[in-house]
Design a protein that fits this description.
Oligomer: homodimer
Helix content of chain A: 40-55%
Subcellular location (chains A, B): Nucleus
Pfam family, one (chains A, B): Homeodomain
Distance between the termini of chain A: 51 Å
GO molecular function (chains A, B): DNA-binding transcription repressor activity, RNA polymerase II-specific; RNA polymerase II cis-regulatory region sequence-specific DNA binding
Keywords (chains A, B): Developmental protein, DNA-binding, Homeobox, Nucleus
Structural class of chain A: alpha+beta
Number of strands of chain A: 5
Mean pLDDT of chain A: 64
Order of helices and strands of chain A: EHEEEEHHHH
Protein name (chains A, B): Homeobox domain-containing protein
Chain lengths: 176, 176
DNA sequence: TTCTAATCTAATAAC
DNA sequence: GTTATTAGATTAGT
């Protein structure tokens, strides 16, 4: 399990954490007057975070805008990054990946049944499944992609086992 | 441009073409009493189609259910597959891919602006963009995937040009 | 034709 | 084990 260290600085204050496209678009980067505070973030999937200022996170070449809930100061009276629980949650949401979908048994059953018959459903069938199963069409598409990968994997594994078995048979014969 | 040939047969009749998961799930395959008629289908992306009976298309290992609009007969009085315009459209919809999304200039502008800042937007930013731009979140995701591929392509091309230019420079020098 | 949206595979991350 | 994301290669629509 990897984790990244982020250096931070606070400059201004907002009522609630705000993460908006406006902020992303309105960003100006040219204010490097910083005192920084380390912040641990569990997000190994998005590369290395370089630093966080009052409303920005630099993430390698990439960048995110944020605003902080309250003004925070360290012992020297300098502003300090002190993420709240809700702030961290929101941050993780904005940085992170889609929450894992938990398919119900019934949904899986239907998807598997369709997969048996057609493992490459077109847009129409995907849409119909989505409506029927109360899922997004895109989740259906991803499910079929992953299901095909699984099938291929199991195929490869069974072939490997067959090769292994025939080698074993050969060796048995040699011992006779 | 490839195209597949499908052999077909009609057995029963319905008011309109019907493509349902119910049919896919309720399918029984064991009735191979067929006279077939070729049908051209433009769908090279989904593998080879083997045949169509009154309500099925066999597509390699895969399979789709269909029903035909009207009874059709050939000169011998045998049922024949005669797809109507609307039937073919529906068929293509069910077999085919998602209709190509046409992004507006304004949408592209915003997406490009965000891409400049963050080419790997997390689920939160994607959702926010989707809401803001009246697009599905997964279209946003695909757009960023394709945009990253384009960037990489142009990167490779400019590198190629630079190498080519320096070779050219070298050759010029040698001529002196 | 060129550009790019959509799809696929394979590998890998995350939970 | 299974869902989500990525890069990279293709296919195909405008």
């Amino acid at each position: 399990m990897a984790s990244s260290v982020v250096s931070c600085q606070i400059r201004r204050v907002e009522a609630r954490p705000v993460f908006t496209i406006d902020h992303i678009l309105g960003l100006d980067l040219n204010r490097p007057e910083l005192r920084t505070v380390p912040l641990k973030l569990y997000r190994p999937w998005a590369g290395k975070i370089l630093f966080v200022s009052n409303h920005t996170i630099l993430n390698g070449e990439h960048l995110l805008m944020i605003k902080q809930k309250e003004d925070a100061h360290d012992f020297n009276g300098k502003p300090q990054f002190r993420p709240t629980e809700s702030f961290s949650r929101t941050l993780n949401w904005y940085i992170g990946r889609r929450p894992r979908t938990a398919f119900s048994n019934e949904q899986i059953e239907v998807l598997e049944s369709v997969f048996l018959i057609n493992s490459y459903p077109g847009i129409g069938i995907r849409e119909e499944l989505a409506q029927r199963l109360l899922l997004d069409e895109d989740r259906i598409q991803i499910w079929f992609q992953n299901r095909r990968a699984k099938l291929k994997r199991s195929h490869r594994e069974s072939q490997f086992l067959m090769v292994k078995k025939s080698i074993g048979d050969l060796e048995e014969k040699e011992e006779e």
